[in-house]
Amino acid sequence: MNLTEIQAALRDGGHECWLFYDHHHRDPIAYRVLGLPESMMVTRRWFYVVPAQGDPVKLVHRIESHHLDSLPGSKLEYSAWQELWQNLEAMLKPYRRVTMQYSPNNQIPYISLVDAGTLELVRSFGKEIVSSANLVARFEATLTEAQIASHFKAGHVIDKITEAFFQEVGRRARNGGTHEFEMQQWIMEAFGREGLETCDPPNVSVNGHSGDPHYEPTSASSAPIKQGDFVLLDIWAKRKEPGSVYYDITWTGVVGTPSDKQREIFDVVRGARDTGINTVQRAFESKQKIRGWEVDKAVREFVAAKGWGQYFIHRTGHSITSDIHGNGANLDNLETKDDREILPNTCFSVEPGIYLPEFGVRSEVNMMVRDGRGEVTGRIQNELVTI
Hints:
Elements: H1 3-12, E1 17-22, H2 28-34, E2 46-51, E3 57-61, E4 74-78, H3 81-92, E5 97-100, H4 116-124, E6 128-131, H5 133-140, H6 145-173, E7 178-179, H7 180-194, E8 196-197, E9 203-206, E10 224-225, E11 230-239, E12 247-254, H8 260-285, H9 292-305, E13 319-320, E14 346-350, E15 353-355, E16 360-362, E17 365-370, E18 373-376, E19 385-386
Parallel strand pairs: 3-4, 5-6, 12-19
Antiparallel strand pairs: 1-2, 2-3, 7-10, 8-11, 9-11, 11-12, 13-14, 14-17, 15-16, 17-18
């Protein structure tokens, strides 16, 4: 735990204090931010308040009184619930507004981890509870220079694998055929050779399967890939190094000549993707704060204006860290209204899609915000791949 850094972040964000709370590992964010071992046995509630200035205070049960000893600050103990309430009220007495892992109306469920009863208890002390969403993004999604470098290294390799994938699909389709699962396993073998790892295998989706954004081929359900087929590849991985960051892209192509409709849908998705990229870049160039929902809104309005809005059924993008879905701002004004700021030294995807019964198009790039600007971190697809 870096107390100086946490307190600086609290002051920068206008927060009075940050109250961490857990019971039975309900809040993994608390353990990561505070540097507590996630293997620690927790059978009783603990609280830890970090003020913007001054010394933190701990509140622990007497039978687990050493749980927070690795953290700085004074310690209060309790056994009875009445004693817990009294001590918690006392440790929060200096503050009017208390920051917690909470999101109003559960708009950002990744952050909304404190149970309703505990929120009621803190409010009963006359406190206003505010969200820790942007604080969490600062500590969970802001990347180091080494992590940023790992993302670019992974991207360089994955871009090459992606190009080779479409060449291999074409070769096999012309020489006896192939199928989704077989090509998925071909990619997994390439990951192994290149020192990459992934939480889940890539998605290789053909024709109607590409209209299902989270389709996953299996050995039992795999569809053949043949002349005239539409192919979507969603591929993500990171280097086999501690703290390395994912690279996550989606490309599409056709074995043969694309139809007019396939070209039309791709052009709309490409325009939507570029709208998202440009929206982020303009904001940082003009030194304006921008939130995740604002990017999604611009992209969604572009797709709707082209007449395809009802077929764009997911958010525009997600945070990327050492987890494929990180804890920074998502580009989302559909599934949630993500009002977290897009922060410097963070990475995220921009991936609008249009999904029809016969095929679906998604074009996904990754963006990194650093040095006062937003940049796409790898190759950008500007036309359907002719396989």
